[in-house]
Design brief:
Number of helices: 10
Distance between the termini: 36 Å
Strand order of the largest sheet: 5-4-1-6-11-8-12-10-9
Largest sheet: 9 strands, mixed
CATH topology: Spore Coat Polysaccharide Biosynthesis Protein SpsA, Chain A
Number of strands: 13
Oligomer: single chain
Structural class: alpha/beta
Bound molecules: 1-O-phosphono-alpha-D-glucopyranose
Strand content: 25-35%
Helix content: 25-40%
CATH class: Alpha Beta
CATH superfamily: Spore Coat Polysaccharide Biosynthesis Protein SpsA, Chain A
């Protein structure tokens, strides 16, 4: 069973300045819930209860969010507003949170390696909170089912327009079952003309712990950063890494366009509930 989920959350969120000047980008809300809480709930839904968060300077609000606010609790106890805290209370009760800081920004691979101290020697999930997913069965739950069967690292993928491959890690592979690909190649943010396919990695990973040693020997790649995509290609060549075309919706909340789409989508869902 996979119990731990890692959240790289040290990035600056420059695309959302000035909102992210003093607020972590992971705390930007879609409706009333911060992005990172959606990710934590997806992990919890998949049976994970240990959240490991890689933070950086200026990210204190994340820690405060996943903690009791005694003043607030006291203020609203017994009032009609108490229910606003139900969901976050539930999350706090069911999970533990631990934090470590990524001291330098050297890429996603480096961020994941920074989390090794919180993960140890066991398989784990990774959620990039700015990829917000919505599916009847959570994307991480879908991936865990696959992990049960194959016991190897898995990345979630979706088809993107070919001209957008330069925003993602892109895979090539053989479809071994419907929507499941055995990876033979992976390239970080290729130009459309060099992309091996239009199957883009989105921010959900299941990783086996040997990935840490591989990252340690992975040279800086695209943008001079240590890329998880490059480390995973090494792992795929040594053994097996799968790519899974998940069932559900995904919004790139790292972009304004995706953020607005997510907001409208979740707003419509809320309206349907009421
Ligand atoms: C990261 C990964 C990339 C992946 C993407 C998914 O890029 O490096 O391979 O496709 O997340 O959101 P970033 O968006 O952090 O630049």
């Amino acid at each position: 069973m996979i119990k731990k989920c890692l959240f790289p959350a040290a990035g600056y969120g420059t695309r959302f300045l000035p909102a992210t000047k003093a607020t972590p980008k992971e705390m930007l809300p879609v409706l009333t819930k911060p992005l990172i809480q959606y990710g934590v709930e997806e992990a919890l839904d998949a049976g994970m209860d240990t959240m490991a968060i890689v933070t950086g300077r200026g990210k204190r609000a994340i820690e405060d969010h996943f903690d009791i606010s005694y003043e607030l609790e006291h203020q609203i106890k017994g009032t009609s507003k108490e229910h606003y805290l139900t969901e976050i209370r539930d999350v706090i009760t069911k999970c533990t949170f631990s934090y470590t800081r990524q001291i330098e920004m050297k890429g996603l691979g480096h961020a994941i390696l920074s989390g090794q101290t919180l993960i140890g020697n066991e398989p784990f999930a990774v959620v990039l909170a700015d990829d917000l997913c919505h599916a009847p069965k959570g994307v991480l739950s879908q991936m865990l089912d696959l992990y049960e069967k194959y016991q190897c690292s898995i990345v979630a993928i979706e088809e993107v327009p070919k001209e957008e491959t330069n925003k993602y890690g892109v895979i090539a592979g053989k479809e071994i079952e419907k929507d499941i690909f055995m990876i033979s190649d992976m390239v970080e943010k290729p130009d459309p003309k060099d992309a091996p396919s239009n199957l883009a990695i989105i921010g959900r990973y299941i990783l086996t712990p040997d990935i840490f040693d591989i990252i340690k020997t992975t040279k800086p790649g695209k943008g001079g950063e240590i890329q998880i995509t490059d480390a995973l290609l090494t792992q795929a060549k040594k053994g097996m890494v799968l790519a899974y075309k998940f069932d559900g919706e995904r919004f790139d909340c790292g972009s304004i366009d995706g953020f607005v789409k997510a907001t409208n989508y979740f707003y419509e869902l809320e309206k349907e509930k009421n």
